[in-house]
């Protein structure tokens, strides 16, 4: 294989981020390149003369280095495993094999690049306009757009990597390790706060790391502040860590080398700096056009010469420093184009003049001249301009250059402030937004606060740190004074020049141009939020970091509003692209297990989730259907046992216990005698059925009630609330987790139980719906004679620690009868044969007891119960639907739950339960239908996947209508 | 993650609490018209602003009332119900 391409860098400098002793080798688009350790992918490629680093999302235009810090999304790569690797900030690793994400074919010969020439046919809002007519074409358009527009290909076989999460807390969290952040850390640290200082690059210093001529003392400043911070034990510095979101009450999510940390900070100092903003002109997106700070980063941090011959377009004095940096990096500076008519008198301007660089004041770059099929630039046309971006003449002069460096202004990196509910206001004389109202405990410092000079930033940070430390201990905040700043207006108010041929890009991620925003305004989208949605400006991976401000400027001009009135779009998490992998948890699914779980496992149970509970669906080794039939037959012919420990189990005690149940449940309980239990149905205040269970009387002032498995927590909660509101003397004790329960059912169950207890369980001694407390298999037990599955049966409730032993004892005692455990599916089938409803399956969020066939359980003559008043309104009206049973003798096409019962065009109801009954030998089910359809023998239509199948309405229950079996 | 102050247990993370709806006193069922009853059951003012809400501290089973501005999500006061 050929040697990797490697071009040597500028001479070593003390502050560079590359380690020249370590050479690495990596591939990009099939070619091999050399790099130094510490290089990012973008710096290594640019350093090796590669100018085409990516393609844009919509028009597939060639793109190169733009911000050099991932404020743009030009350089996004994949390696076969990970997608959307950000080239600007991802370190080169030896052996990396990378390709660009948004290409068809290859990056160099991208077939989809044709869309650029067709861009005239793709106007703003084209998604909304073009692809919905005719409607039936939309799925085809969608497929085509998705094929072209995807950013990378997901590899489903990629290895799963854990993404750890942690929790942490501190007094003062400082976001951003530049001069203001470091000063804040020192101030808060010296005041005794526990401080965490978070910096998203590899070292402290922020913009001072690459400030060059704009701040000649910067390296010394960083070093001395860093040394001071190191002396403070209560200040922890976290590098390579970025704060991705700020949530309620200073709870922040940050991602660093160790995964995600959820940090609760008492006070937060936002020292996140500023995003440098591009100028907008024709072809301002092509490789070679870049931000001033991008050129500085290349030159100072990676010692890469950004270009050979540069044109510097600027709107502030900072840009003069950039021009000097370029010259120092060996770049020939063709000219400095100053958008301002009157140039400053600062030192930097003076130095530029002294260096013999030509200054063109009151001029703009009207257009860049593309080179080599848009893969770079070969020059620019410079024209005189007014301060509002209007060109006085477009003849201008042509300047040859292979790079245009833009230093026209900033926008505050105020994302966290916005997310926390703070506000930014447009400050006219600084031509930018500045934090105005900050939420309690949040403080801003440095460039995000509109303070630009290095000394001023240090002073501002110190003040913010002092305030944060005071806030953290609840002291009065020291006063804040805005530092005197050296650079007063670092932003140009309108660095935007339109061109009749367009291709002047506001948003590089989404290829949004000036005219798109102007057209959106003309079509009536006159606020920042609307324009964002219509044009997609700011919706790309960089979330408007370098496009929102210019978009607002253009919109303000087009609609005659001030920028302050146009505003900015809502800041939402995340501040930086965050992968699903970084967010993904450990699939932590807490399961509730009953105390008999191990017995089910040993018996080969196949488990299902029922809410949080794990319950046996059926028991192996038989296949599902056969197992269920086998279990049903055991219960019908001999005996079965099921774990019902998931039911809610509540003691209701106190002098008013009976009165309380009268109010909570629809039935009557004051007349329930000792040793009896009764079905209990609960409605909400609108009269809708919400829960059911059994209620047994333990004593004069003591009841034991059960609830559905899924409803237990909510029912306990509601009981406690009403008990409090009504002021009744009643105590609610939730035994749900403390008691195990099992149901022994089947014609042989009395014989089996009799071997385990001295209690008189004869038909006369322990009658149907009786309740006893007795010793069973040596365990104190609550017994209820219930018949949910329609057979003689006993529900046994015991303290959880004895449940497994009781289960074992019952199974052993039942060996002669061949007792087997049965699962939830068999139970569902058994109860359906018996016509018993399951609340939540055979009812929904609108079902009244009157519709569900439960009117018998509702005592409307009681003085009060929850839902009674609503039912009184509903009762006189005819029901809209009613629950009824049906059978199907021909079941070649079997409906499923929720298939609709229809009559012609009318939807009458839906199937709620359906199964083939092993006992009856045909399909049975329950469904809602029109009340007039519920007469047994009526034929109803059920729609199954577009076909109609017929079922015959049948009387409930399907099995043992005289209840002989359960009462025996 | 928000912190809420339970009147019994002090400041606790929001995950420990369950929202229980707006505090609306039940009218006497016998003395209201059907329309008034329906209004009590179904109509709640959801406009952002100060609201009185039921909250439940699930681990300890404590119901209490929180005065919360649903526009700003500021909880100004929490206290136990007293008839």
Tell me what the structure shows.
The complex is a heterodimer of chains A (968) and B (83). In chain A, 24% of the residues lie in helices and 28% in strands. In chain A, strands 8, 9, 10, 11, 12, 13 and 26 form a 7-stranded mixed beta sheet that branches. In chain A, strands 38-39-40-37-31-41 form a 6-stranded mixed beta sheet. With 968 residues, chain A is an alpha+beta fold. Chain A is elongated, with a radius of gyration of 38 Å. Chain A is built from 25 helices and 47 strands. Chain B is mostly beta strands and 83 residues long. Chain B has one domain: Folate-binding superfamily (Folate-binding fold), CATH 3.30.2270.10. In chain B, 11% of the residues lie in helices and 43% in strands. Chain B has a 4-stranded antiparallel beta sheet, with no helix packed on it. In chain B, strand 4 and strand 5 form a beta hairpin. At the A-B interface, helix 20 and helix 24 of A face helix 1 of B.
Task: Please provide a brief summary of the model.
The complex is a heterodimer of chains A (968) and B (83). Helices cover 24% and strands 28% of the residues of chain A. Chain A has 968 residues and is an alpha+beta fold.
């Amino acid at each position: 294989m050929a040697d990797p391409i490697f071009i040597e860098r500028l001479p070593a400098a003390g502050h560079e981020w590359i380690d020249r002793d370590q050479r690495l080798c990596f591939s990009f688009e099939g070619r091999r390149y050399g790099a130094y350790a510490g290089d990012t992918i973008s710096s290594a490629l640019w350093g090796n003369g590669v100018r085409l680093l990516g393609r844009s999302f919509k028009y597939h235009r060639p793109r190169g280095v733009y911000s050099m810090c991932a404020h743009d999304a030009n350089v996004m790569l994949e390696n076969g495993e990970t997608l959307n690797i950000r080239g600007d900030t991802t370190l080169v690793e030896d052996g990396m094999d990378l390709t660009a994400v948004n290409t068809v074919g290859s990056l160099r010969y991208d077939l989809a690049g044709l869309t650029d020439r067709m861009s005239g046919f793709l106007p703003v809002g084209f998604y909304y306009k073009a692809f919905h007519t005719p409607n039936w074409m939309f799925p085809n358009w969608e497929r085509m757009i998705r094929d072209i527009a995807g950013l990378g290909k997901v590899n489903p076989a990629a290895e799963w990597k854990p993404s750890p999460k942690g929790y942490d807390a501190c007094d003062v969290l400082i976001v951003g390790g530049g001069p203001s952040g470091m000063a804040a850390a020192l101030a808060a640290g010296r005041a005794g706060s526990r401080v965490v200082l978070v910096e998203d690059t590899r070292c402290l210093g922020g913009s001072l790391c690459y400030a060059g001529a704009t701040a000649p003392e910067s390296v010394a400043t960083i070093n001395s502040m860093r040394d001071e911070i190191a002396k403070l034990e209560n200040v922890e510095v976290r590098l390579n860590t970025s704060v991705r979101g700020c949530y309620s009450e200073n709870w922040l999510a940050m991602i660093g080398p160790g995964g995600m940390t959820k940090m609760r900070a008492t006070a937060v100092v936002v020292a996140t700096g500023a995003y440098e903003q591009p100028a907008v002109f024709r072809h301002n997106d092509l490789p070679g056009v870049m931000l001033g700070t991008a050129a500085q980063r290349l030159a100072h941090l990676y010692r890469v010469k950004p270009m050979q011959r540069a044109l510097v377009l600027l709107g502030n004095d900072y840009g003069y420093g950039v021009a000097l940096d370029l010259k120092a990096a060996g770049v020939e500076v063709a000219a400095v184009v100053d958008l301002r008519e009157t140039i400053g008198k600062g030192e930097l301007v003076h130095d530029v003049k002294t260096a013999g660089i030509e200054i063109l004041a009151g001029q703009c770059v009207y257009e860049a001249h593309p080179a080599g099929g848009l893969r770079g630039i070969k020059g620019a046309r410079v024209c005189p301009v007014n301060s509002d971006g209007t060109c006085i003449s477009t003849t201008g002069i042509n300047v040859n250059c292979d790079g245009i460096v833009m230093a026209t202004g900033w926008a505050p990196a105020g994302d966290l402030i916005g997310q926390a509910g703070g506000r930014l206001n447009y400050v006219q004389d600084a031509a930018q937004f500045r934090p105005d109202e900050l939420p309690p405990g949040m403080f801003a410092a440095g460039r995000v606060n509109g303070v630009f000079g290095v000394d001023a930033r240090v002073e501002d940070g110190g003040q913010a740190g002092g305030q944060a430390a005071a806030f953290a201990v609840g002291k009065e905040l020291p006063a804040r004074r805005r530092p005197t700043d050296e650079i007063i207006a670092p932003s140009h108010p309108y660095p935007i020049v339109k061109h009749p041929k367009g291709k002047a890009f506001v948003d590089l991620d989404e290829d949004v141009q000036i005219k798109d925003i102007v057209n959106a305004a003309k079509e009536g989208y006159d606020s920042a939020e609307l324009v964002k949605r219509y044009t997609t400006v700011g919706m790309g991976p960089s979330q408007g970091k370098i496009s929102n401000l210019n978009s607002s400027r253009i919109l303000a001009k087009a609609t005659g509003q001030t920028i302050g009135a146009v505003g900015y779009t809502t800041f939402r998490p995340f501040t930086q692209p965050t992968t699903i992998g970084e967010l993904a948890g450990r699939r932590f699914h807490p399961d509730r297990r009953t105390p008999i779980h191990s017995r089910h496992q040993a018996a080969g149970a196949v488990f299902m989730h029922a809410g949080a509970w794990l319950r046996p669906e059926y028991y192996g080794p038989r296949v599902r259907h056969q197992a269920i039939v086998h279990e049903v037959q055991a219960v019908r012919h001999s005996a079965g046992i099921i774990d019902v420990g998931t039911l809610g189990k509540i003691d209701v005690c106190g002098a008013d216990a009976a009165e309380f149940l009268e109010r909570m449940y629809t039935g009557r309980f004051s007349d329930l005698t000792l040793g009896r239990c009764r079905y209990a149905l609960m409605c909400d205040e609108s009269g809708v059925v919400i829960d059911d269970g059994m209620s047994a009387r333990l004593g004069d002032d003591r009841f034991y009630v059960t609830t559905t498995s899924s409803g237990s927590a909510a029912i306990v909660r509601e009981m406690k609330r009403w008990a409090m509101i009504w002021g009744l003397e009643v105590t609610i004790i939730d035994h749900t987790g403390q008691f195990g329960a099992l149901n022994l059912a089947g014609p042989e169950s009395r014989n089996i139980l009799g071997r385990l207890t001295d209690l008189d369980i004869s038909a006369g001694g322990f009658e149907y719906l009786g309740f006893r407390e007795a010793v069973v298999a040596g365990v104190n037990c609550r017994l209820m004679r219930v018949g949910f599955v329609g057979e003689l049966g006993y529900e046994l409730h015991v303290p959880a620690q004895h449940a497994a032993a009781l289960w074992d004892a019952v199974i052993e005692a039942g060996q002669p009868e061949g007792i087997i455990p049965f699962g939830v599916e068999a139970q569902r089938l058994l109860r359906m044969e018996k016509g018993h409803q399951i609340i939540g399956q055979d009812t929904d969020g609108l079902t009244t007891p009157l519709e569900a066939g439960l009117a018998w359980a509702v005592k409307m003559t009681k003085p009060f119960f929850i839902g009674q008043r609503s039912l009184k309104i509903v009762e006189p009206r005819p029901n809209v639907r009613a629950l009824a049973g049906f059978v199907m003798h021909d079941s070649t096409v079997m409906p499923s739950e929720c298939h609709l019962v229809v009559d012609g065009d009318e939807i009458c109801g839906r199937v709620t339960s359906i199964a083939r009954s092993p006992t009856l030998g045909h399909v049975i089910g329950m469904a809602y239908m029109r009340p007039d359809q519920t007469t047994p023998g009526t034929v109803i239509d059920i729609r199954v996947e577009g076909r109609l199948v017929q079922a015959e309405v049948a009387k409930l229950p399907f099995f043992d209508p005289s209840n002989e079996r359960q009462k025996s | 993650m928000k912190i809420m102050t339970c009147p019994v247990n002090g400041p606790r993370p929001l995950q420990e609490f369950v929202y229980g709806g707006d505090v609306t006193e039940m009218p006497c069922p016998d003395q209201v018209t059907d329309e008034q009853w329906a209004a009590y059951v179904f109509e709640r003012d959801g406009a952002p602003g100060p609201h009185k809400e039921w909250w439940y501290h699930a681990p300890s089973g404590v119901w209490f009332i929180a005065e919360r501005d649903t526009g700003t999500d500021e909880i100004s006061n929490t206290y136990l119900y007293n008839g």
